[in-house]
Amino acid sequence: MSNKVIDMHFHEEEEEENTGESRSSSRTPRGHFVVYVGTKKKLERFVVPTRFLKSPLFQKLLEKAAEEFGYAEAYRNKIVLPCDVSTFQSLVMFLTSQDKSH
Question: What is the chain written as a DSSP string?
């Protein structure tokens, strides 16, 4: 079995020269949304399928994010999840395996 996770895509952020704002190096595919995971100094961008929103585990993580960060204030309208990258990758692999088993 391959370790490759098909449903998760990592994209480097590029910083705009004049504004200091970051922009994605690619567009979000239809049926997916963007979340950021990691530390305040080093957030990594992940594109995940919207079907993850049905998962109680993912919903809990979103609730925790809302409690910890609020929805828009702290990170300029980004969805930032309060966990480290390796934990998030494990969650994505678990949710992906659940999809395949049903």
Answer: -----TT-EEE-EEE-TTT--EEESSPPPTTEEEEEEE-SSSEEEEEEEGGGGG-HHHHHHHHHHHHHHTTTTTTTT--EESS-HHHHHHHHHHHHHHHHH-
Q: How far apart are CA 37 and CA 26, in angstroms?
A: 18
Asked if residue 21 lies in contact with residue 15, where contact means CB atoms within 8 angstroms, the answer is yes
List pLDDT tens digits, range 39-66.
878 899 999 999 999 999 999 999 998 8
List CB contacts of 58: < 8 A, sequence separation 6 or more.
52, 91, 95
pLDDT in tens, 86-96: 999 999 999 99
Tell me what the mean pLDDT of segment 13-33 comes to. Answer: 60
For the chain, state the CA radius of gyration. 14
The rounded distance, in Å, linking the Cα atoms of 14 and 57 is 31
